[in-house]
Fold this sequence. Notes:
This protein is of the alpha+beta class. The protein has 2 helices and 8 strands. It has one domain.
Amino acid sequence: MRKLLLSLGAGVASVTLLAGCSSLYLEKESIESEISQQIEEQFGVTPEVSCPDDLPGEVDAQIECDLTLPEDDELHKIQVTAKSVNEDTKEVGYEFEVLD
Length: 100
């Protein structure tokens, strides 16, 4: 499974942001689901993705999530970075990459 992780690189998605307490953020459950779905579509495996927090709706905001692939006992770290934020449409573009 190590080769698969090295070839993941990065992905990009636009997901609706939620407004809470006058600040925009992307719910961690949305990030987990979207990343898992992208990896499944590209590589045919469904990983478990777990993020500790929501992603702030600010360009260059980052969170570090955990990724576990089927048949792989190792926990891998992925970094999720907000790359664009459109406050009018409440959408964020983000990238994710495997850190190890």
